[in-house]
Structure formats: C-alpha cells, structure tokens
Amino acid sequence: MDESMIKDSVKASPEVATALSEGRAVVALESTIISHGMPYPENVESARTCERIIRAEGATPATIAIIGGVIRVGLVDEELEHMGRSSGVRKVSRRDLPMVLASGEDGATTVASTMIGASLAGVRVFATGGIGGVHRGAQQTFDISADLMELARTPLAVICAGAKSILDIGLTLEVLETHGVPVIGYGTDAFPAFYVRDGGFPVDERADDVRDIARVMRLKWSLGLSGGIVVANPIPKEHEMDPALISHSIEEAIQTAEARGVRGKEITPFILARLNEVTEGRSLSANKQLVYNNARVAARLAVAYAGLDP
C-alpha cells in the first residue's frame, strides 16, 4: 500500500484527525444521501441533524465525500452545503473511485466508497440508511450492489435499517453469508427492510447491548478475519410504514422503471422518488427518521468500541 498516495488522496478534517489520534469514537456518514437522496435544503438539514445526534452521544461525525479529487473524511459546514447544493456531483462507488480522484472531480460516496474512505482513515463504525443488495430479478440481470462485496473485504461495522425494500432480501442475506459477513440484529431477531421492521428473514445473531457488538468487532478483526459486520437496526416502530402499502408501491415503481428503461445505478433513486410521490412524502419522512436512529446507535457503538481495552 502506497502510504504517500493515501496521504495525498485521503484527508481527515482536523476534528476527525484529532479524535482518531486520541482513540476517541468516530462515526462515518455517507454523502450520496446528501447529493442524490433528498432535495435541497432537506438534504443538508438532515446531514446536520445526523452530525448533531452523533455529537450528543459523545462521538465525532465524519461525513465522507470527494471534493476536488480528494476523499474528505469529515466535512465542515460549507462543504456540506456545497454537496447539497451542487448539481452534477457524481455518484461514486468502488469502480468509480480512481477515475474521480484522478480527474479532480467532486463525488458523493455510496456505502461501498464510504467504507473505503472510512477504512483508509482508520474509522471503524459507519451509519447509513439501508445497504444495497441483490436486486429483484438478479438471476437474469446479475444486478448486485457493490455494497455486498465491500462488506466482504473492508473492516467496518455498518449500522443500517437492513436492506432497501426494493431488493430481494433473501438473496441479499445469502450473499452476505457466502462472504462471511455476520448480520447482527440490534434488539431484533428479524432482518428489517428499510421502511418495515420485519423483512421476513431472521438475522444471524441478536444483540441487545452495543457493548456485545463492540466485542464481536474487536474479536473478528483481531483474528485477522477480513470484512465488515452488518448491524441491522429497525426503523423506530412509530415511524414504520404499512408493509402492504410499501410492497404495492414498490411493485408499481419497479414496473414503471422497466417500462421507461431505467437501469443500473439509476434504478434505486428512481424507485425511491416514485415511492415518495405515491406515499405523499411519508416515505421520505420515514427515511430521515431511520437514518437518525442509525446515527444514534452507531455513535453509541463507536463509543463502546473506543472504550474497549487495547
């Protein structure tokens, strides 16, 4: 690994760098949700709310984005505003990362590229909304998110509300199992499906205390076992959406996407936008609440992990 190249391409903010050097809790956050997930100014306001929640729990937030061809780990307020306002910011996954860095462009990080940036900086806990996975019909399309491959190789605990409801949950869990990625339910026996608390499949293990998850993290990586850990954290019950409504709306959105020829990485934002229309904004509100809940749990986990004996 070229240390000088990493130093030039990955830069932590002073706040994040200090927290890491002192062994304090840090939580990574992605930037795709800012640039591609919500309209302005809701996107920036939500990002700021996530950071406030993490700070209130005693951890340091590290929102990750590519600005001017550099992976920034921890954004100042002006940079958050820039990511929320700017049009044409590229959505960057592992495949796109070297090209965007080489060209000096701006990029919004997905789950996969956020994991890469966080890991290079030494961050071990990441809060997101929901992970990507195996898309419905993948037997024909081979449409499988790079998030799953990143979880197989990069050492982070990813706190999420399960996988996005538009995915094939069963096949997503099968791929994670194949690659040795533990799926731990935080306070739940069921793997959640984003807007819904029970996605119809069980988790590998249940943990009711973040300290237990922190010990799993330490043991996994101390043993030299590569890859991450999925911490499935259900959307709060009061914000859960009606499963029948979500299922019907997703099927309708998928059919519309197929009719319009929407493919690849454009499918997820298209379907989420359609869901927001069909549910009259309720899906966007639920999305924000589950992200806030994940940020809170991630901060508590990061604090527990930082407090473990070396």
Main attributes of the structure:
310 residues; alpha/beta; Indigoidine synthase fold; 2 domains; two-stranded antiparallel sheet; 49% helix
Explained architecture:
- The protein is an alpha/beta fold.
- It has two domains: 1-123, 3-Layer(aba) Sandwich (Indigoidine synthase fold); 124-310, Indigoidine synthase domain (Indigoidine synthase fold), CATH 3.40.1790.
- Helix content is 49%, strand content 17%.
- It has 14 helices and 13 strands.
- It has helices at 3-9, 14-21, 32-37, 42-56, 77-85, 97-103, 111-121, 138-141, 146-153, 169-178, 210-222, 243-260, 267-278, 282-306, and strands at residues 10-12, 26-29, 60-67, 70-73, 90-92, 107-109, 125-127, 157-160, 183-186, 190-193, 196-202, 205-207, 229-232.
- The strands form two sheets. Strands 1, 2, 3, 4, 5, 6, 7, 8, 9, 12 and 13 form an eleven-stranded mixed β-sheet that branches.
- A hairpin with a 2-residue loop joins β10 (190-193) and β11.
- α4 runs antiparallel to α5, α4 (42-56) packs parallel to α14 (282-306) and α7 (111-121) runs parallel beside α9.
- The chain is globular.
- It starts with a helix and ends with a helix.
- The mean pLDDT is 93.
Approximate helicity band: 40-55%
Structural domain tally: 2
Q: Which descriptor suits the 3D outline?
A: globular
Superfamily at the CATH H level of the largest domain? Indigoidine synthase domain
**Strand fraction:** 15-25%
Secondary structural class: alpha/beta
Q: Architecture of the largest domain, according to CATH?
A: 3-Layer(aba) Sandwich
Report the top-level CATH class of the largest domain.
Answer: Alpha Beta
Which fold name is given in CATH as the topology of the largest domain?
Indigoidine synthase fold
Major beta sheet summary: 11 strands, mixed
Order of helices and strands: HEHEHHEEHEHEHEHHEHEEEEHEHHH
Q: Distance between termini?
A: 25 Å
